[in-house]
Amino acid sequence: MNPYPAIRKVFQGVPSRPQMFRMFDRHLQRPNRWGDDATPLYDGEWFEILPPLWICGSMFAMREFLTGSVTSVFFALRIDEAIRYFHGYCDLSEKASVETMRLPIIERENRPVRVLTRAERLEHIWSSTADDFRGYADERWPEASRGKRTVMIYGGKDGTVLKLLEGLSDDEIAAKLPVQLRHLPSPIAA
């Protein structure tokens, strides 16, 4: 039995950008988060957001800026005869930033063979690693490394080791990737 009304407003006023993203997962701390069906919790929830900053065909930009003039831009793009949806962050102070983002998405997603560059592999590892196991090099690191991204890896007999993301070996990268991505060719080999 759902104790909540079917359709309900869950925030009064217009949330700020951080509040908006918190609202997307309002029930984050619920017990048994991954083991139960949260449909009754989320179903029917709604809240107001600022209108898009602009809408141009199948693209629109959010009015809630992440920082400075950078905001979310959503794309509906035709890839291989199917409409697919993408999100990117664009600096709207640069007039061509949205088109500069759109074209590489189309180019990347239209590659005939599924391949991953080293940079794409590292970005996937960074994106999929839990916050507790990734970070940025601080004052404990040599000056040249400070501010660079770090990830925790299993170092065999040495246990877990904190390493610079960019310094991962091919074997360490393969170990951190999901099985379905480990053996994809690089563009050079394709």
TrEMBL record:
Pfam families the record matches: DUF1419
Organism encoding this protein: Rhizobium lusitanum
Protein name in UniProt: DUF1419 domain-containing protein
InterPro entries given in the database record: DUF1419 (IPR009862)
Highest rank taxon of the organism: Bacteria
Lineage: Bacteria, Pseudomonadati, Pseudomonadota, Alphaproteobacteria, Hyphomicrobiales
